[in-house]
Amino acid sequence: MEKLSLAITELLAMSLGVDRTHYRDFFEDGRSIMRCNYYPPCPEPELTLGTGPHCDPTSLTILRQDQVEGLEVFDGNRWRSVRPIRDALVVNIGDTFMVRELPLRLLITPKFLPITCTCNIKCSVI
Predict the structure, then answer these.
(1) What is the 3-state secondary structure (H, E, C) of 69-85?
(2) Which residue ranges does the record assign to the Fe2OG dioxygenase domain (predicted)?
(3) Total-model pTM
């Protein structure tokens, strides 16, 4: 994951027009936070108190959906489902990356909504 994170930050740097190693000092020490979440199936999702709409408070979130739906992203004026793609990863740019790049005004932190699943176990490692 560390190598993948560094590669993603290099791609972000190049897309923003700065040197590809611009963010290396912030990420190459390998310090990161990992959070594991477990969501059991819930037959009555309307009764749950889960995570509401939010922006990720990290620089990058790399998520493997494992063929389980349950993530939505706010796109302008509506929520859109992020459908799982086999063996693919979802990469979210979080708030701390946005704060670091605020003068560029090129990045907008997306808002996410985890959906309660009625039939499958969901786990996330963030």
Answers:
(1) CCEEEEECCEEEECCCC
(2) 30-126
(3) 0.68
Beta carbons within 8 Å of 18's beta carbon, 6+ residues apart: none
Question: Are residues 60 and 4 in contact, defined by beta-carbon separation less than 8 angstroms?
Answer: no
In Å, the largest CA–CA distance within the chain is 50
Give the three-state DSSP class for 11: helix
Give φ, ψ of 118 to 5 degrees.
-90, -20
Q: Are 108 and 75 in contact (CB under 8 A)?
A: no
Instruction: Give the DSSP H or E segment for 14.
Output: helix 2-15
- Please write the tens of the pLDDT for every residue from 73-90: 888 788 888 888 888 888
Query: One-letter amino acid identity for 98?
Result: M
**Locus of tokens 């190693």:** 21
